[in-house]
Predict the structure.
Amino acid sequence: MSFLEYAPAPESRAILSLRDEYGLFIDGEFVDGHGTPFQSVSPASEEKIATIANANGADVDAAVAAARRAHDRVWSRMPGRDRGKYLFRIARLIQERARELAVAESLDNGKPIKESRDVDVPLVAAWFFYYAGWADKLDYAGLGANPRALGVAAQVIPWNFPLLMLAWKIAPALAAGNTVVLKPAETTPLTALLFAEIVQQADLPPGVVNIITGAGDTGAALVGHDGVDKVAFTGSTAVGRAIAKQVAGTHKKVTLELGGKAANIVFDDAPIDQAIEGIVNGIFFNQGHVCCAGSRLLVQESIHDEVVERLKTRLSTLRLGDPLDKNTDIGAINSREQLERIRELSDAGVAEGAERWSAPCEIPENGFWYAPTIFTNVQTSNRIAREEIFGPVLSVLTFRTPQEAIAKANNTPYGLSAGIWTDKGSRILAVADQLRAGVVWANTFNRFDPSSPFGGYKESGYGREGGRHGLGAYLSPATAASAGRTPARAVEARATAAVEEKPAKRTRRPSKPAKKGAAK
Amino acid sequence: MSRLAVPKTYKLFIGGAFPRSESGRTYEVAAADGAFLANAAKASRKDARDAVLAARGAVAGWGGATAYNRGQVLYRIAELLEGRRAQFVAEIEAAEGVTRAQAGAQVDEAIDRWVWYAGWADKFAQVAGNANPVAGPYFNISVPEPTGVVAIVAPQDSSLVGFVSAIAPALVAGNAVVVVASERFPLSAISLAEVLATSDVPKGVVNVLTGSPAEIAPWLASHSDVNALDLVGAGELDWVDLEIAAAETLKRVLRPEPGPDAAAPTLDRIAAFTETKTVWHTKSLR
Amino acid sequence: MSGTSLVTARERAVAVLGGQPDDATLRRYLHGIPGVDAVGLEQRAAGLGTRSIKTSSKQWALDRIISLIDLTTLEGADTPGKVRSLVAKAMNPDPADATTPRVAAVCVYGDMVPFAVDALGSVHGDPDDGLISVAAVATAFPSGRSSLEIKLADTAEAVANGADEIDMVIDRGAFLAGRYGQVFDQVAAVKEACRRPDGTSASLKVILETGELVTYDNVRRASWLSILAGGDFIKTSTGKVQPAATLPVTLLMLEVVRDWHLLTGQRIGVKPAGGIRASKDAIKYLVTVAETVGEEWLQPHLFRFGASSLLNDVLLQRQKMASGHYSGADYVTID
């Protein structure tokens, strides 16, 4: 027998007790939605998991109203110390129910259990722990003394890290004193609904966290709602763009964490075995459904062949299959729609003359799957070198000098992340300096931590999540006129007639609805 | 016996040069009492395009300069302004119809704001940056870096203080700017450009357009090579459309600021046009 | 068992190095090998450690672990009686279960070789044939601090007494001082001393003592150096220095062996030794071998565990799998 064909070691689903139907979580209770319910299916088997309520405009109104009440009457008046205690409770409850959450996440999303168990869920707990401690220390957030919460935060999250993105959104918002209405992605609502149960177990005041499920129109209604003070969105650049337009002219503060096409730059003096692992982790982690995925491998021409050969060897050991199997490296593609997009772009790569190589994986009969794939002979102008594929597809390009590597890495409208692999410290720092990306991993890739700010340049969005910066995204200074004013000669000295006669007028008009749905 | 004065021709400031508008257009700038002051250049969309190009070319050098160097260059502007104080006082006095003392106070405030911002150049990253205690064997640091090319609609009600207050914070962090001056009070902006041209500010780092903000701003808001848009002085414009245009390429946008002291100096104004970059590196003794 | 012939090894080294194996040439070569990022290496090893092995694979793995063990006693207090007891355990690990495989070898000090050979009798031989080899530590084990003459005599005596395998230690002092040529020459000379009058040769395992080399870059260079000089196996540790074998170090050495195979076509063995006490840990090593160099390496002349207490833990696991209930320490023999 082959030892490598380890017998299946599926994580038990017995730990998970799911309901057949889930309502919306508004004002501390599960309630029926007024839209047409939809099914959440397992992408690995296409089996139905549960029926999920669909929030319509009235439901959005109710959720925002609940959040507003909770903000005005309870949460904004509560001492930070107590808000912190609630968040610590939530962190502990997540740890207690970690295995259950991991199983639910893999079931609903299709990601390997080893990732949901070892990466997603531990980070979720860490995120709440980190921000819990901030709740009574907001004076140190960098906005001066007594910063204010923004109010009600509308949060729309994607399907690639459902629970982790929830934590990235809810933890800092609550720590800062905001209340939230969060909409999980249509295809992955399950863990957010389990989180609602955790919120109940934590005895969080009703309305502080509201979770509404639905598709893009629900998200758009939430983002565009007049009662919302803050919009935080993670998802595609197309939807992010629509949101930016939708909130134009309003008072809403916005954080957008959008797409990417990260360069993973490998120099010829790189620690080669770790670089191979980093490349694999960079693009095949979570089936490549990662906004910061290292989808463009920029390898120094002198080691191109060696790197590609080693990559192919390594990819051949990856195990694709049942997400709940502890030995699975590559899980299912999240949806048929996403699979189609990956196929389309991959075919475009072939049509444009790139060479496609896929790992020899057995593809299960049911569900949505895509074998880990490498494209060589890719040109910078090819679609697969420019567009975000959001799947397990790596485009390999070459460079000759550090300058060329930097130029190619930056030659994209995106700017979320980048990787550098070299043994030379001075080069790492200089290249990191010049990369136009919000997160740069040197001799590592795809690392996340609640204390570490994350977010993009350019069309990868704006604002940061994580760390002190992520907290600041949910606060405003005590008064607009304080915070760091110059102590210079006072403004009153310039009592010009012109200024006094013409106070600036602020043009306002109703915001337009976004063209596309607000969720990806 | 009075001497006949030699009036100045006010032109645009693009890429370190002082061209007329490529369109050949000018518009009349009048004093508070209605008297003719000058024919200022009326910039066109092509001038805006040229300015963005010049700014883009200057980003790497300015953003890549040491913070100490940027601080000195910005401080040098204050020094030169101080030396030409009388010129600016006279210009403001004529343009805004304020007293000499009021104009003097404005110039002093503008100079002091340069000094204040210049001092931030090599401190801002320390205040806005972080060493992050991540749970793993990593060195992890977050630093603010310039956003790139920032287009600014300067406060419209102020000759100098508003203009300085809008561009200085963007420059501190290492951005290059394209700024549309006050339509009504453009002359001090161009005089300031003359100061910049003779100071150590590299060409292209500041580009000044005069003319109609309503005409030029949409071209800047929609320009794909502009990274950020400061609408501080755009309150009179249809700025929502500008914000929507800017959203096409996810530009960072500062919305109009009402009030008598728009763009008042704050650390937030520096932070607004920076990108927090976080760098991870493994660490080990083995 | 016979390793590579010396002439071939040196010739190959000269060809690979592009020059004679002196300090300068070796330094140029060894320092030209890509570095190791410790964090990444340790993460990869940890990842391999999370593989979950169940049922039939586990059964196979447990038996395979036993057949890859160099059952070891290396005490100052070793006696002929202790060695005979060890050999008995090696031949018949679980008296209650005849299906239990034998270990690959017994590993003893050089002066104990005759007693081991004697005790093994007809079972003495090549583990590939289901027999048990005798491995002797040599070259002033564990410190290696003596003259080359004494090291060679130590080796020759063990071989003459019937040792099939020699576990030598490199001169860590020379290595850390950058005297790579000296380390090369010693390994090559010991390899020569492994020759028997009939032209065959004892297999040479080169102990790096990774706990004293400390850095992974050193381990990688010492691995290349030992292989270039003619070692048939590279071995992590003497067991007398902490840390002894670790999964990251073993993974790194396997990567060297993989690269050497790609370069020359020659297969070199790897032996983690010291500190591997639990079946669960040993299985992680098997996974690491299988996913790094391939399952073909999971055979006695390419992979060994240097261990003593590991064997009993594997036996307890075996008993549990056979009976369905947990076993206890009194149901396995102490040696």
Q: What stands out?
A: The longest helix of chain B spans residues 100-120. Chain B touches chain A through 71 residues (CB under 8 Å).
